[in-house]
Design a protein that fits this description.
Elements lengths: L28 E7 L8 E7 L17 H14 L1 E7 L1 H7 L1 H16 L5 E5 L11 E5 L2 H4 L1 H24 L5 H4 L5 H10 L18 H9 L3
Parallel strand pairs: 1-4, 4-5
Antiparallel strand pairs: 1-2, 2-3
Helix pairs in contact: 1-5, 2-3
Length: 225
Amino acid sequence: MKAKIKVTSSISPQDLEPIDWKQFAPSPIIGVDEVGRGCLAGPVFAAAVILPDDFDCSGITDSKLLSESRREKLAERIYAHAEVGIGFASVSEIDRLNILQASFLAMRRAIENLQAGIGHVLVDGNQKIQGLDGFRQTTVIKGDLRVVPIGAASIVAKVARDTYMKKLAEKFPLYGFEKHKGYASASHTQAIQANGPCVQHRSTFAGVRELWTSTLDEERALDPF
């Protein structure tokens, strides 16, 4: 008789309970999230969002749980009623700094674009934003599910990056960026194998670096973004 294996999760039920974001101080409360860390191509984007107290929070959740059309409609509502800052770090910056530091850079730029000056930053995950001065920070595991301003940030960051990748697909039509948005889908990895990478691929990532050439370094130097 085979022994039964008990599978446990490192995330407790308490880690998934909603959090009242209005409890935090000082104001304004700034939700921050990034998108695109795991991609093989394209920049990493981040958004910072300040919601008004009377914001209609219905439907706001982790962007990954929403259809593209639903994300776009929610992003319209967020832009119409909230303060939004978008930031990104380019593929050159990702390869130079590493993806974690580039993500922090994108988040700092998003917050800077809010021009808030002060506030309490709620960050998705378990790491505070390195190099961010003048703001109090609180990290929230699964924050895009549990904290409305972080969920809102995840939505606008995703919509902004998807829009960018669709435009990138027009410039680099061999890779299908408009479909997979740079993630390591089967069709994307096959396209890289068949055509080699382009300058918008991340040269330090497995699946790309093995095929990277000095010619691509020269092309990127002329157009680093």
